[in-house]
Design goal:
The structure holds two protein chains of two kinds. Chain A is built from three helices and seven strands, in the order αββαββββαβ. By secondary structure, chain A is α/β, with parallel strands linked by helices. Chain B has a three-stranded antiparallel sheet. Classes of the chains: A alpha/beta, B mainly alpha.
């Protein structure tokens, strides 16, 4: 495993104590579990802080933890620093009744389609997104295919 | 003065849109004012389907996503699950994985070379490239039994070892490839028409390329020296001698040059891997839960028979956890975010496909250029629609 692959989370922990709920280190990967409040500030810091410099948003992935779970959804941001060659995952949990997140459009342009896809597949709303439309499914499609209660053969 | 703008649909049947991409183009004369990509015609629902398959069965889906880079897709998924399980793969399996993945990169770049040149109007290169690609597909068929969707890599190694005639077959191909590559370069690279259609076209700056999270030859054509085989080596890539081609023209021509150089670098890796393949060894991990037992043992011992039955019918379980594993595919960073709940099926497999992310920057590349340039730019991103619309 590459020695410089994963980010040191201690700096982030002290700076964003109110936003970060938990820091998990497993299988050589670091996950920050963050609250939605303060997420934009956290992400901006992660991008701009010279010792972190997560200037590359690799991916955003949604997970449905099940229709009876509370919170129901998890959204995982996979960040990468081209300069320091390290990675970090920021994870936010959301309740189904309040599945809203701020858009990352002003931080990384790559978030545009990735957020649209999560909106399309899970029904998570991204506030401030410049063009939040369905991306893989037709505009008039009902339901969110990657939710666990969505049948594999469709409704 | 009357508004002269016109909206046209390019695709999904236009040959240069490589499948089922539709572009809504707002034109002012021949200038593209706005480009809105419309994807989502395939509806393959692969991420959903993966949640219903056993861990091992998922490789039959991943190889169908980016069907021009099947080996790479399977490799990324296998590495992710192996990381979750803490499984170590034998050296010979690693070498086989590198060799076949690099051959697949050559095959994929050959399709790009042929279709990209054809998009711009050069027809001959297409036939040259596809003839050569057939030789690689013959090699895949010899190793795995399938030409396109091999599912040859499995969790813990490869499905079986390669046959005896595999090494001479690959050697024959590799011996002839440099000559073929020279012919290709002579055919297209020096062509004045091709150069004028590609230089200064579809420009995306280094900063924008990072901001849009481009990857693979597309970002390396914008001057970013980033290749996951070097930055986060897997399958022993750090032990191979190869360079990462980078050009800073940020245009279609630069992306073309990057891929043409990558032909040579992949060929170099293949030659080294082929040498290492001469050392015999196991191709499967000795993890007892992963591999089907030997047939002879199965006929002699009932407990081995039971193990075979359980593994074939129920599969195996993977410890609770999540992992993000990325590799350098022919098109860029393909990554798997795999979540396991400890069951015999993946709870969630999220695939970060390079074509999808690279295509999202298409409007930034084509707005302000001529409609004829859109064709050149799409070809330079080298999208596969199965990779865009999962």
């Amino acid at each position: 495993m590459h020695p410089s692959r994963y980010a040191d989370a201690s700096l982030i922990r002290t700076k964003f104590a109110d936003t970060i709920e938990e820091i998990i280190e497993a299988i050589g990967e670091v996950t920050l579990v963050a609250k939605r409040e303060g997420l934009v500030e956290l992400m901006t810091f992660l991008r701009d802080e010279p010792s972190l410099k997560f200037n590359y948003l690799s991916d955003i992935g949604g997970v449905d933890l099940g229709e009876f779970a509370s919170p129901r959804f998890a959204v995982a941001y996979q960040l990468y620093s081209l300069e320091h060659n390290h990675r970090l995952r920021v994870k936010v949990f959301l309740e189904e009744k309040d599945a809203n997140l701020p858009t990352m459009w002003n931080i990384w342009k790559a978030s545009n389609w990735l957020e649209r896809e999560i909106y399309d597949m899970f029904g998570v709303n991204f506030e401030g997104h410049p063009d939040q439309r369905r991306i893989l499914m037709p505009a008039d499609y009902e339901g969110y295919p990657l939710r666990k209660d969505f049948p594999i053969k469709g409704y | 003065m009357a508004d002269t703008r016109m909206t046209v649909s390019m695709g999904p049947q236009h040959p240069s849109t490589h499948g089922v991409l539709r572009l809504e183009l707002v034109l002012d004369g021949e200038t593209v004012v706005k480009a809105i990509p419309d994807i989502g015609y395939l509806h393959t629902g692969m991420e959903k389907t993966m949640e219903k398959e056993k861990w091992q069965q998922v490789v039959t889906i991943t190889c169908r996503m980016d069907y021009l880079n099947s080996m790479g897709n399977d490799l990324g998924y296998c590495l992710a699950v192996e990381k979750l399980m803490g499984v170590e793969v034998p050296e010979r399996a690693k070498v086989l994985r590198v060799l076949l993945t690099e051959l697949n990169r050559l095959a994929s770049h050959l399709v790009w070379f042929g279709t990209h040149a054809m998009d711009i109007g050069a027809m001959t290169g297409f036939f040259y490239a596809f003839t050569e690609r057939e030789r690689i597909l013959d090699i895949f068929e010899n190793a795995s039994g399938a030409r396109l969707h091999q599912s040859y890599f499995i969790i813990g190694g490869t499905r079986w070892d390669v046959p005896d005639n595999f090494i001479p077959q690959v050697k024959e191909f590799l011996d002839g490839f440099p000559k073929f590559l020279d012919e290709c370069k002579r055919l297209v690279t020096g062509n004045k028409i091709f150069q004028r259609r590609t230089k200064g076209v579809g420009v995306i700056s280094k900063e924008d390329a990072i901001d849009w999270a481009l990857s693979g030859p597309t970002i390396r054509g914008s001057g970013v020296n980033w290749d996951i085989r070097k930055s986060e080596p897997y399958s022993g890539y750090d032990t191979y001698d190869f360079d990462v081609p980078v050009y800073d023209g940020c245009d279609v021509w630069s992306r073309y040059l990057v891929r043409m150089d990558e032909f040579h670098e992949s060929w170099k890796i293949c030659c080294q891997a082929l040498e290492r393949l001469k050392t015999p060894g196991s191709v499967k991990s000795d993890h007892p839960k992963l591999q089907l037992p030997e047939r002879d043992l199965m006929k002699q011992h009932i407990d081995v028979m039971i193990h075979h039955f359980l593994l074939a019918s129920e599969g195996f379980t993977v410890p609770v956890g999540e992992v993000y594993q990325s590799i350098e595919s022919a098109r860029g960073e393909i990554a798997y975010y795999v979540v396991s709940d400890g069951g015999e099926r993946p709870y969630r497999v999220r695939v970060r496909t390079p074509s999808y992310v690279n295509l999202s920057a298409l409007p930034a590349m084509v707005e302000g250029s001529l409609i004829a340039d859109v064709v050149a730019v799409i070809g330079s991103i080298d999208i596969v629609l199965g990779d865009v619309d999962r």
